[in-house]
From TrEMBL:
It comes from Rhizophora mucronata. GO terms for biological process: protein import into nucleus. Its main location: nucleus. Keywords: Membrane, Nucleus, Protein transport, Transmembrane, Transmembrane helix, Transport. Pfam families: HEAT_IPO9_c, IBN_N. PROSITE patterns: IMPORTIN_B_NT (PS50166). The keyword Membrane applies. PANTHER family: IMPORTIN-7, 8, 11 (PTHR10997), IMPORTIN-9 (PTHR10997:SF9). The lineage of its organism: Eukaryota, Viridiplantae, Streptophyta, Embryophyta, Tracheophyta. This is Importin-9 isoform X1. It is found in: Nucleus. GO terms for molecular function: small GTPase binding. One of its GO terms (cellular component) is cytosol.
Length: 668
């Protein structure tokens, strides 16, 4: 009787503690700042009491409570684990969690991994991973068996998801002592998931592949010191995975299927690791994935063109799943190029695509087209256009251009010929599109100009060495003279790229064409044209003016200086350095009289720019350099005037002395 009363009292006390904790958690979400602050302070005090971690774990595991409260409890539990779980850690704060409470927390969390709510499952997995960092494997030997048990239970898909999510977090922290032990047990299990699409679906298959990638990365890191052991370990597992990768890549890429894109992306990441870390093993099995990979590459272009290049808005751009993994088409395409870079850069695997390098370049050029989203963003914000061009922002265009550079570096003359042939073919196609009335014909033209400009240094080098028979200057002039007739407002991005392209290829373009583009660029800077066109013109001027003849029309220079001064008032931080750089080139190219006549107008503006950006080392240096050029020009002009004045006085003196001598001679 007495024991029953004691039990009832304890149970009632526990219920009161639980209700108090629930009330506190609810209060932390209250819109009233005072209520929130009091609740947070109360929870902070409660965290110092025995059983607090277990109480949070129970709330997080209670499927009858609201999703928000459970998720909050799981997040607070993770913070609690970091502070109180392991003595001796930098983040540790007293008191430490008891052994009994640790056991309760671990048991409750493992039992909650099959929750149907993915956000809860992720929060629980994060908490388990936090504990595993301290306890696993020695202090928590049953963790991996419990996770594998969940994975093998095909009747509980939620449990499979929870276990995979947890393993994905754990696999990122595996060390070289754990991976060799885990991989032989784990990989067959993961292979089963990946090979059964009807049972598990693409989302779970992607999670399984992400774990394969993490483990293979660690094996690759170990291969330096333990080459024989890691090679032996991978040798027995490589073929089944390569066969499965070929099955996944064989299917055509589908639009509006981000789960499929994500899965293929993980396959490509795994292949990259296989090729980089185990080249001899991979080479033997590589042919099985060549055809399927090419199928993925070609069909992904069609989807990319429809969704990103022609589509007004990519609904999956910048999207992430509930675990924080990116699901965008762009990230998938970038991973395609990453793998191709690895293939082309490998002497052994390059042979596989050597006969199809022209086709590779041809399709790559199509990926380089400006997307509709970029057109919208860059049209509205010239600063973003400049920033993306300057920083080489990671994108499909940048990744594709890097692949083309690798083709030139690795394939030599054959690679260059393939690029030139593909460029000519694309140029002719765009001509046909233009004749047929297509409004998007300019995208292909802009893409091939962008590609050639990114390869300009390499192309100039091989042309100078006579390593190729291509007429680079003739090709460049053919394209630019054709496109300069396009209306600047009809195709502003093509017009902008033309200026940049001409500046890059000025050494091989005839003087007459350069003069024409130089005049056009000077004129454009002062016109009401789309901002990207002015950006392209400024880039061209900053490179072409220093190389131009000193006989540039002074009226043109004065007009340019006036236009650039006006641009300084409109420029932001991103575009300011470009305007200042162009201004400096214009001052150097003009006559000293030009600088002197406009100095009183420009100098105050430059000084204001310097004062406003004195904390920015790049802009302030550009501003100072412009002032130095001004001073140098004016000093030169002054010195000329002084010399002329002195020379005249000398002439007068000489003339007087000569007359005096003549008079003296006549008297004699």
């Amino acid at each position: 009787m007495a024991s029953n009363l004691i039990h009832q009292h304890q149970h009632q006390h526990q219920d009161q503690d639980r209700q108090w904790l629930l009330n506190c958690l609810t209060a932390t979400l209250d819109p009233n700042q005072d209520v929130r602050s009091f609740a947070e302070a109360s929870l902070s005090q409660a965290s110092l009491q025995p059983g607090f971690g277990g109480a949070l774990a129970k709330i997080a595991a209670d499927r009858g409570l609201s999703l928000g409260l459970r998720q909050l409890a799981a997040v607070l539990l993770k913070q609690f684990i970091k502070k109180h779980w392991q003595e001796g850690e930098d983040s540790f704060e007293h008191p430490a969690v008891s052994v009994e409470e640790k056991e309760v927390v671990r048991r409750l969390l493992l039992a909650s991994l099959d929750d149907s709510h993915r956000k809860i499952c992720t929060a629980i997995s994060v908490a388990i991973a936090s504990i595993a960092a301290y306890d696993w494997p020695e202090g928590w030997p049953d963790l991996l068996p419990a996770l594998l048990k969940l994975i093998y239970d095909q009747t509980n898909i939620n449990g499979v998801h929870g276990a995979l999510r947890c393993l994905a977090l754990l696999s990122g922290d595996l060390d070289d002592t754990m991976v060799p032990t885990i991989v032989p047990v784990l990989f067959p299990c993961l292979h089963t998931i990946v090979s059964l699409p009807q049972t598990y679906g693409n989302y779970l298959r992607t999670k399984a592949l992400s774990i394969v990638y993490s483990c293979t990365s660690m094996l690759g890191t170990m291969s330096g010191a333990y080459k024989a052991e890691t090679t032996a370990l991978m040798a027995q597992m490589l073929k089944p995975w390569m066969d499965q990768f070929s099955v996944i890549l064989q299917q055509p890429v589908q639009p509006e299927d981000p789960d499929d894109w994500s899965m293929r992306m993980e396959v490509l990441k795994c292949l990259n690791q296989f090729v980089q870390n185990f080249p001899s093993l991979t080479e033997n099995e590589f042919m099985v994935i060549v055809g399927p990979f090419w199928q993925t590459f070609v069909t992904s272009l069609k989807v990319y063109v429809q969704s990103s290049i022609e589509g007004e808005e990519n609904p999956y751009d910048g999207r992430y799943d509930s675990d924080g993994a990116e699901r965008s088409l762009d990230s998938f395409v970038i991973q395609l190029f990453e793998f191709l870079l690895t293939m082309v850069g490998s002497a052994k695997l390059r042979k596989v695509i050597q006969n199809n390098v022209k086709e590779l370049v041809y399709y790559t050029l199509s990926f380089l087209q400006i997307t509709e989203q970029q057109v919208h963003t860059w049209s509205m914000d010239a600063n973003q256009f400049v920033a993306d061009e300057d920083d080489g922002t990671y994108s499909c265009r940048v990744s594709g251009s890097l692949l083309l550079e690798e083709v030139v570096n690795s394939c030599g003359r054959e690679g260059i010929n393939a690029i030139i042939d593909a460029v000519r073919e694309k140029f002719n196609e765009s001509q046909q599109e233009k004749a047929a009335g297509s409004v998007a014909w300019w995208r292909t033209r802009e893409a091939i100009l962008f590609a050639l400009a990114s390869l300009s240094d390499q192309l100039h080098e091989v042309e100078g060495l006579g390593l190729t028979s291509i007429n680079l200057g003739g090709l460049a002039e053919q394209m630019v003279t054709e496109d300069i007739r396009t209306g600047v407002h009809d195709s502003p991005f093509l017009y902008a790229r033309l200026f940049i392209f001409v500046a890059k290829f000025s050494p091989v373009i005839s003087h007459g064409v350069l003069e024409h583009f130089l005049s056009a660029a000077i004129k454009v800077v002062g016109l009401d044209v789309p901002p990207p066109v002015k950006v392209g013109a400024c880039r061209a001027l900053s490179q072409l003016l220093p190389e131009a003849n000193q006989g540039i029309n002074q009226a043109q220079i004065m007009c340019l200086l006036s236009s650039l001064t006006e641009l300084l008032h409109q420029a932001s931080d991103e575009t300011l350095h470009l305007v200042l750089e162009t201004l400096q080139a214009a001052i150097r190219a003009g006559h000293e009289a030009s600088a002197a006549s406009i100095e009183s107008i420009i100098s105050p503006v430059i000084l204001n720019v310097w004062a406003s950006h004195v904390s920015d080392p790049f802009i302030s240096i550009y501003a100072i350099e412009v002032l130095e050029v001004f001073i140098s020009s004016i000093v030169t002009l002054v010195m000329i005037h002084v010399f002329y004045f002195v020379f005249k006085r000398i002439l007068v003196f000489v003339k007087i002395r000569w007359i005096q001598c003549c008079i003296m001679v006549s008297k004699c």
